[in-house]
Design brief:
The complex is a heterodimer of chains A (220) and B (232).
Chain A (H helix, E strand, L loop, with lengths): L10 E2 L3 H25 L1 H7 L2 H14 L2 H8 L4 H11 L3 H9 L15 H25 L6 H31 L1 H8 L2 E2 L1 H7 L1 H15 L5
Antiparallel strand pairs in A: 1-2
Helix pairs in contact in A: 1-2, 1-3, 1-4, 7-8, 10-11
Chain B lengths: L5 H30 L1 H6 L31 E6 L5 E4 H6 L3 E8 L5 E11 H8 L7 E6 L5 E5 H4 L4 E7 L2 E2 L9 E4 L11 E7 L30
Parallel strand pairs in B: 1-10
Antiparallel strand pairs in B: 1-2, 3-4, 4-7, 5-6, 5-10, 7-8, 7-9
The chains are: A mainly alpha (220), B alpha+beta (232).
């Protein structure tokens, strides 16, 4: 990766807590999607059978699913993750612009922060999907308190959200592969200054400003 | 921090969609079955079979799909009977057939509307063997080697309990529990044991496979889905 910037130092993007939370969640999603496919799709069910085993794995992985992120935000170690959750929550006019114009305006006209609007939407969808899938999944696993219509409703929601999750995960992987530097932010934890300056200009200014503040402490 | 909390609104909105889906999903599902189902039935690619509309989900508790050909198939009836029976597929076919069209309802909520079944009444099979005094219940075994089920004698003698060999006018496939399975219309799907191998007449109910794992032994389908065939 060449950089036109004289500062060759990398810019930290995700710390260890964030990466650990991301990758354990990703692994659980992988297990859930594959065991879910076996439980749901007739040809796979027929091929693999062993419903009780797949069901157990699916149920336990599902119950564990929210744990990594909850642990990540819970403690003193979660400061960066909590801050990023805040960033994902807040939308500016640039986010609307990002959706409307990204194919028509040159990059830089949209002043993107640490996350672009697509990433914000993706993260928000996953957060909600985890809760919806967990709630409906618990209803399917322990259906006794619920009427048949509610069970049918829970199945309905679990099925269609699962389709949404498959699409979101495949899209997420596709975009990550298309942008190796961004992917590096989640694997190695850092990105190049060039990438930050061109792809996430508002964040780049924020980070460099923070560095300057560190280097030049305010006079006492 | 700058900007509006759109993330939170989208998040809560999606939770709302999920909650609404739980409450209204059965109506939407019914509508989809009626309006979209017929088109999917005509789709030749088979891809639409993956959509959650009008489809059976294939449940098997063992590692491979059990298979038994029509000619090798035997149904054995033993236990507290006057005369233990071994019926071939063709013997069962030769008995007086009964047709039933009912919804197939899984305990977890999925439902296939108006499924056409054909078979013989379980009661007729029992009569051929002659149930002895003191018999109270039936224990069923599947030739998958693992699955078991149970019924009381009274439940077994209902008119809507079939030893089934046809589904939607076709011979039962392996996936649907062929060549012969039970179809217990008033109960959740897990009672309708697939790949029926043996019927044992016993003096007490022995809970079956899923019942050992927490499901009800008397699995009457609730009244909440507008069915009135549920009560004992």
């Amino acid at each position: 990766m060449t950089t036109t910037h004289r500062d060759d130092a990398v810019i930290p993007r995700f710390d260890r807590v964030e990466r650990a939370a991301h990758w354990t969640t990703a692994a659980l999603f992988g297990v859930l999607m594959l065991t879910g496919a076996v439980l749901y799709a007739g040809p796979f069910s027929a091929m693999f059978g062993r419903r009780e085993l797949f069901r157990q794995v699916h149920v336990y992985a599902g119950i564990l699913l929210p744990v990594p992120v909850l642990l990540g935000v819970a403690g003193r170690w979660g400061a960066r993750l909590r801050r990023d959750v805040g960033r994902i929550n807040r939308w500016t006019r640039d986010d609307a612009r990002w959706f409307r114009r990204r194919n028509r305006v040159p990059p830089g006209r949209v002043d993107v922060g640490k996350f672009n609007a697509g990433q914000k939407l993706n993260a928000t969808f996953f957060a909600a999907a985890v809760i919806v899938m967990l709630a409906t999944g618990l209803m399917l696993r322990w259906p006794n308190p619920f009427s048949n219509d509610l069970r049918t409703g829970a199945t309905f929601v679990h099925d269609w959200f699962a389709f949404g999750i498959w699409i979101a995960v495949l899209g997420h992987i596709y975009f990550a592969i298309r942008d190796p530097v961004a992917l590096g932010g989640m694997t190695r934890g850092s990105v190049t200054p060039y990438w930050a300056r061109t792809e996430r200009p508002a964040w780049y200014r924020e980070v460099t400003q923070e560095r300057q503040d560190l280097e030049e402490p305010a006079p006492r | 921090m700058d900007g509006a909390p759109v993330g939170r609104r989208v998040f809560l909105g999606l939770l709302g969609v999920g909650a609404a889906g739980i409450v209204l999903g059965s109506n939407v599902q019914r509508w989809l079955e009626r309006e979209v189902g017929p088109y999917l039935a005509k789709d030749g690619t088979g891809l639409s079979g993956l959509l959650p509309i009008g489809r059976f989900r294939i449940y098997s508790v063992t590692g491979s799909m059990p298979h038994r050909g029509h000619d090798e198939y035997r149904l054995r009836v033993s236990g507290l009977v006057d005369q233990p029976l071994t019926l071939s597929y063709h013997d069962i076919r030769a008995m007086t057939p009964t047709g039933l069209t009912r919804d197939f309802q899984c305990v977890t909520g999925w439902r296939v509307f108006a499924v056409k079944w054909k078979g013989v009444r379980l009661g007729d099979v029992l009569d051929r063997a002659g149930v002895q005094a003191g018999a109270k219940a039936l224990r069923f075994r599947s030739f998958d080697g693992t699955y078991t089920e149970s019924l009381t004698l009274k439940q077994a003698r209902r008119d809507d309990v079939l030893v089934a060999y046809e589904l939607e006018g076709e011979e039962l496939s392996d996936a649907h529990g062929g060549p012969v399975r039970l179809y217990i219309a008033p109960m959740y799907g897990y009672k309708s044991i697939k790949w029926l191998d043996r019927i044992e007449v016993t003096d007490e109910v022995v809970p079956g496979y899923w019942e050992d794992r927490g499901y009800d032994v008397d699995a009457w389908i609730g009244r909440s889905n507008n069915r009135d065939d549920n009560a004992p």
